[in-house]
Amino acid sequence: MALYSREDDVAIIAVNNPPMNALSHHVRKDLIKFLKVAEADENVTAIVLCGDGRTFPVGADIKEFHKSVSALGPTIIDIVHALEKSSKPTVAAIHGSALGGGLELALGCHYRIAMSTSKVGLPEVKLGILPGAGGTQRLPRVIGLDNAMKWIAYGHHHPAGVGASLGLIDRIVAKGGDIRRSAILFARSMVGKGLGQRRLSNVSVPDASKVEELMAKHLKEVGLRTRGALAPVVCLQVIKSSALLSYKDGLESERQGMMTLLASSESKAQIYSFFSERQVSKWNAPGIANHATAKPMQVRSIAVVGLGTMGRGIAISSLKAGKKTYVVELNSKALAAGVKYIRGYIETMKKRAQISEEQAAAMQSAIIPVSSYNGIANVDLVIEAVFENMKIKKEIFGKLDKVCKPSTILASNTSTLDIDEIASATKRPEKVAGMHFFAPAHIMLLLENIYGRKSSAETIATIMDIGKQMKKITVLVGNCVGFVGNRMYGYYTTESVFILEEAAYPEQVDKVLTDYGFAMGRFQVGDLSGNDIGYKIRTGLGITHKQQPAGTPERKRGVLRYCPLGDFLVEKGRLGLKVGKGWYKYEGSRTPIPDPEVRKIIDEYRTRHHIVPRDISSEEVLQRMLYPLINEGFKILEEGIAANPWDIDMIYQYGYAWPRHTGGPMYYAFTIGLPQVLKVIEEHWKAAGASEPHWQPSTMLTWLVENHGNPDISQWMPLMQKHKSKT
Ligand SMILES: CCCCCCC[C@H](O)CC(=O)SCCNC(=O)CCNC(=O)[C@H](O)C(C)(C)COP(=O)([O-])OP(=O)([O-])OC[C@H]1O[C@@H](n2cnc3c(N)ncnc32)[C@H](O)[C@@H]1OP(=O)([O-])[O-]
């Protein structure tokens, strides 16, 4: 709802719809009603619009989208026009954030004042839509076309001070000031000053003459930065109309753009992503604990064992979260190198104004270098980040168990290994868990937390809480080889080399993936992370080409199909970007260049095995790259390793750069339709049989299709649970 009050001659209309003052239908009704009251009251000379509680309105109510209530009048644009039309000065008093429809309301006001700590922006593009309450037409009239294109096409939130420098905010109230009081005084001072030019629909766009040039510039940038997404392009086209058409016709173009985007699968995927991102923090470890009941332990200090690339990043994340951070290397040279890197990184963040001087000083003084395990006996949490080797990890956990106080939680940053086996090296398995960070750990937003069979509720709640304190998207999953992310990714890479054998070169596969929306294709990613990583894993499994006894068929490992092309590359020194050659060659930059040498390796291999390359469609490449991963996702849900499909999707968006506008692998499957996905998987399974088990259809996928067709993604788990409880 909204509340109406008077301070002498100034009317105050305050939105009161916790937690974020979203502009739900009942709020919109109140706003129109109170504006009429204020307009009709001859004792009112000015009107202040504000938000109660945490913030000014942060936009339309996203929960109403794709429901009929979103279109029920009054709409936000009706309120914008009522604010603008008012014969009395209207002032938006912004504290917290004014975003989306909230900022559009503020743009309807004749004046805007804001706290210096506030944020403003039109982030609709991140929901796959555009500012649909006049924002595309009104913002360019205030801050110019160039800035408006940047703000709207990328959807960033901007400090109020930046808004003030562009003329969007008329006055800034210093931290600690009283925004409502300032707005009342400001509104009163504007009475009788004339409102003509304060009504944005009367004003023209300042840099309208540069429209074509700006359009070309921004379309190019958007193409590179948000590959394959429709909303940024439609946003730009609609903003363009603000320079070319009347305000009224521009609004019509905005309305049409909004209809197109609202109907797109992209906006549904983005809205799903918005809620999924928040949903993952409401974790559940079935039979052990959940977010509502389990209490985290207070963690004041964290020790990071191993200062390689991962350990350094984890230590920086710990310092950023304000923890006393012990950094551990038994070798003094390695310790010094690690500490030097971490200290240098903090200074760089300070220079780039990413952190303040005080924060940098606090982080520097919270680093405690240690060269023996005894030095970390009293820490609350240890995160081990040494080599991916079970024997070494077990040795370390055994030692930590002996020296650390009984309450210390011991976590491993393993990306694939069995947490229960690691825990078995200790006498405190209830205090052992996995915390799988993604490189570089201080930058990547994903944290995949793993609970073991014996992890306690408190241990799980604590690692989830630490993820939140580190400001990561923290997803809880169960224990299995590769957990969720890498277990699924394994089949993505497996299938990619099968495609090379049969039909395509790396650049052709990668192009299909970048056209789909990935920033990089699978082979470019391989080169970037180092092809030797996969090679080491395959060596650990004893399956590389060189490890086989003479006479082993090159394309088989037991009954399984195998493709050794990746092995050949590494054995020829083509480790990837770091050595200037891998699946591609690199000539002094990170730009991948298709390499005739690689084609030769593939061609010779095909000739040796009498494979005649065939034409392959982009559709087949995409299906073969993505469907095995989706199929494995269903197996992961079926086994209870992930509690919900959105857990998997968030892991993929934040850990594997899955294009957000398609929602993630599981949501994408829902968009395509589960029956269609299953049909393709079954065809491959029929053709490949037991030699390619990743095509064996998941029981859950099959059951859902046979019994429910393509149920809404929110229903997958409830339907399965109901079915299981009956059988
Ligand atoms: C159909 C025709 C329509 C035409 C008109 C179009 C008008 C307009 O152009 C479209 C829009 O405004 S689009 C909107 C443009 N605006 C945006 O995109 C801004 C969206 N919001 C945000 O980005 C973040 O919430 C903030 C940065 C504001 C705060 O971050 P923080 O401090 O980390 O807090 P938090 O954890 O994030 O949120 C707390 C709780 O609030 C919930 N909730 C939040 N906003 C909501 C909303 N608008 N709605 C509903 N709920 C919303 C959130 O789900 C969570 O619920 P839970 O049940 O507790 O999990």
From TrEMBL:
Molecular function terms, GO-annotated: (3S)-3-hydroxyacyl-CoA dehydrogenase (NAD+) activity; delta(3)-delta(2)-enoyl-CoA isomerase activity; enoyl-CoA hydratase activity; NAD+ binding
Species whose genome carries this gene: Ciona savignyi
Lineage: Eukaryota, Metazoa, Chordata, Tunicata, Ascidiacea
Domain 3-hydroxyacyl-CoA dehydrogenase NAD binding: 302-479
Name of protein: Peroxisomal bifunctional enzyme
Cellular-component GO terms for this entry: peroxisome
Gene3D superfamilies from the UniProt entry: 1.10.1040.50, 2-enoyl-CoA Hydratase, Chain A, domain 1, NAD(P)-binding Rossmann-like Domain
Domain of life (superkingdom): Eukaryota
Family according to the record: Belongs to the enoyl-CoA hydratase/isomerase family.
Alphabetized UniProt keyword annotations: Fatty acid metabolism, Isomerase, Lipid metabolism, Lyase, Multifunctional enzyme, NAD, Oxidoreductase, Peroxisome
EC number annotated for this UniProt entry: 1.1.1.35, 4.2.1.17, 5.3.3.8
GO BP terms, alphabetized: fatty acid beta-oxidation
Subunit structure of this chain's protein: Monomer.
Domain 3-hydroxyacyl-CoA dehydrogenase C-terminal: 482-586, 621-707
